[in-house]
Amino acid sequence: MKTIRLTMSQALVRHLAALRVEVTTADGRTEIAPYCGGAFAIFGHGNVAALGEALYEQREVMPTWRAHNEQGMALAAVAYAKANFRQRILAVSSSIGPGATNMVTAAAVAHVNRLPMLLLPGDTFATRAPDPVLQQIENFGQGDVSANDCFRPVTRYFDRITRPEQILTALPRAIQVMTDPATCGPVCLALPQDVQAEAFDCPESFLHPEVIRWRRPPPDAGELERAVALLASARQPLIVAGGGVLYSQAWDALRAFADTHGVPVVESHGGKSALPWDHALNLGAIGVDGVTVANQMARQADVVLAVGTRLQDFTTGSHALFSQARLLSLNVQPYDAGKWSGASLVADARLGLQALSAGLAGWSADAGWTAQAREQAAAGQAWIQQITTAAPQPGVLPYDAEVIGAVRDSLNDGFGDAGGDSGTRDIVVCAAGTLPAELHKLWRARAPGGYHMEYGYSCMGYEIAGGLGAKIAAPDREVIVMVGDGSYMMMNSELASSVLLGRKLIVVVLDNRGYGCIERLQRASGVPGFNNMLDDCIAEGGARSTLDFAMHARSMGADAVHVGNVAELKAAMVRARAASKTQVIVIDTTHHRTSPGGCWWEVAIPEVSQRSDVDAAHGRYVDGKQAQRV
C-alpha cells in the first residue's frame, strides 16, 4: 500500500477536493461534479494554522470563501445544499469557542430540514498540555467535553478526531451519512488544533475516492401492495407534496401520477415548485398558511398521500386539517413514513410514485372530485392574480401581497401582463415572519427549486445568508431575497459577503417596524401589543427607532434605494435585474393586513387569565383541539 506523509488537515482537504458525485440536473441530464463545492471559513487560533494551510494548498481545486459571521456562512451552506437538491455540499470551518457555537443554530436548521453540511470546528488540544486554552469551556464533571459537544443533538453524525489516522474512517463515515437519502443531514468533525497539524502515513487511495452515486430505495412488495389497495379504495384522494419530491427530483413522477389518476396536489413549503403553479391539478399551498381552496379540498379528502413530507404542524393544521382522511406516507425515512399511525410506504419518492402508479393501472379518482379540483385550482389562481395586482389604496401602506405581485411581475418590462408570472429562472428566498405565509400562498413557482423557503426551523436571519448560498449554487439564476425588517436586523452581514464574493442578490426589505407576525398572534391570543413593534418598546429615556435600511445596505457595499410605493418598487426591480452587483430595495409596509386563507393552528392559550380576551381565545383553542387526529 502506497502512502504519503500528510497532516490530518491536508488529508481531509485533499479527500474532499478529490471527491466527485454523479448529479442529476433539473432538466434530467446526468453529470459528474465536485461533491464539495467549496468551504466557508472564518479563521481563528483553532483552525488558521493547520486547516487553513491545507485549504490554501487546495484553493484552486476547492475554493475557500471568507464570511462575516459563522452562523451566516453555515446558513449559506445549508441553502447551497437545498438549492442543489441535497446532491452537493459546502464545508464550514470556525475556530474553537464562540466561532463554533455560532454555527449550532445553522446545524439545527440543516438537521430539521434534512440537509447535508460538513461542519469542521476547531477544538481544544487533544494532549491537554496547554489547558485551559483561550475560549475553552471547562466542564467541572466531564473532562472530555468541549463547546463542540453542543453539536451532538443537532447533527446526524458527530466525531472528535483525536488521532490523525482517525480521519481515514471518520470522514468517509460522515460522507456516507450525508449521502444516504434516509439519514441525510449535517455532520460535525471536531478537530483539536494539535491533531490538525499532526502528520501520518496517509494511504494514497484515500486521496482518490470513488465517485458517489445515489441510492434510490425501492418500495417493499408487501408495503406497496397495501398502499395500492388503500389508494384504490379512495374516491376523493389528495396528494401532499413535500420537500422529498424535490430532493428525489420526482417532479415528473408527481405530475404523471396526478395526470394519470386525476388526483389533485397541494404543496407544503418544502414541496412548492414540484409542480408548476399553473398545473390544472395544483391547488397550491396547504395548511396554516395555505390557500382556501387547498384547505377546503383537504377537509373533503378520504385518503391523503403524503409524499416526502415531515407532516409539520403548519402542513397539517396541527393534525386537525385532514384528520378525517386515512393517511398514507411515502417517505425514504421510516421515522417520517410512520407518523400518526398512518400506512407507510418507505421508498424513494420517485420510485414510490412510479410503483404506485403502475399498481393502480386503470384506477382514477372520482371524475367529479377531479373536476372539482380543476375548478378550484383555476379559481385559486384567479384569486391570487386579483389580490396581487389590486390597485393601491391612496394613503394606505402596501402589504405583503401587493409587494409580492410587484416583485413577481417585474420580469422583463417590470409591469407584467394580466397573467404576470415570476421568471422561470428566478429563485425567491425567505424564512420567517409573515412573508413565508404570503409567499406560500401567492408566489408563482414554475421551475423546480424556484421557491426556496426555510420553514422547517423558521430561522430568522436565514434569508440573506441563504440567498448567498443559493446564488453560489445557481450563479446563472436571479436570486431574490424577500425579508422583513426583523429578520434583516437579526443577520445582515452576509450582504457584505455577497458584494465581496461578487455574488449578486436582489434583496427586498419589507419594513413594518417590528415583529408584525408575532404581534398579530399575540393579539389573537388575547394579549395587547407588547414587546414586538418598535414603537411599543421604547424604554424610559429611549428614543423612537429611526432605522434606515437603505443607508445601512449602502454602507455594506450594496446599491440600495428606499421606494415610496408599489409603482416605484416595480421600477426599482427592473433596474435591479439589470444590475451586476447586490441590490437592496426597501419599502414600508403594514402588518395589519394579510391575505385570506389558512386554518386552525395549535398555540397554547392560558387556561386562566384576568383578561376576558384571553378567556375567549382559550375557548377557541379548546374548540379547535376537538378536530385533531388522535
UniProtKB/TrEMBL annotation:
GO biological process, alphabetically ordered: inositol catabolic process; isoleucine biosynthetic process; L-valine biosynthetic process
Signal peptide: none
Keywords: Hydrolase, Thiamine pyrophosphate
GO cellular component: acetolactate synthase complex
InterPro entries recorded: DHS-like_NAD/FAD-binding_dom, Myo_inos_IolD, THDP-binding, Thiamin_PyroP_enz_cen_dom, Thiamin_PyroP_enz_TPP-bd_dom, TPP-bd_CS, TPP_enz, TPP_enzyme_TPP-bd
Listed PROSITE patterns: TPP_ENZYMES
Name of the protein: 3D-(3,5/4)-trihydroxycyclohexane-1,2-dione hydrolase
Species of the source: Sphaerotilus mobilis
